[in-house]
Amino acid sequence: MAASHEFLVTLLTDKFEVSRPDIRPDATLAELGLDSLDAAELQLTLQEEWSAHDLKGEITDKTTVQQAEAVARAWRAGRDVSTAEDAL
């Protein structure tokens, strides 16, 4: 779990220039300044990190940090999720 969380936080801070103190579990990606294209890029990066191209799941700008982390954990474990909410 820690690896997924730290990777996500690092992505948000380094690639999307989100301030670390703003990254709260209940914050949506939109609240952190990411739009739908950024969310798609985040999803693609997470899928590439864990070779999850064949796994189902979606991260949108309405996805919270907690939900995105849950999706990342599911992909890391090799599981499909149909939506971010299903990953919780």
Description:
- This protein has 88 residues and is mainly alpha-helical.
- It is 50% helix and 0% strand.
- It contains four helices and no strands.
- It has helices spanning 2-15, 36-49, 65-76, 84-87.
- It is globular and about 30 Å long.
- The two termini are 13 Å apart.
- The mean pLDDT is 87.
Helicity level:
40-55%
Provide the residue-averaged pLDDT: 87
Q: Compute the separation of the termini in Å.
A: 13 Å
Taking pLDDT < 50 over at least 5 consecutive residues as the criterion, the unreliable ranges are: none
- The string of secondary-structure elements, in order, is HHHH
Main beta-sheet strand count, sense and barrel state? none
Q: What structural category arises from helix and sheet content?
A: mainly alpha
* Shape type: globular
Round the Cα radius of gyration to an integer and report it.
11 Å
Strand content: under 5%
What is the number of E strands?
0
User: How many distinct helices?
Assistant: 4
How are the SSEs ordered, and which strands pair?
Blueprint: H1 2-15, H2 36-49, H3 65-76, H4 84-87
Helix pairs in contact: 2-3
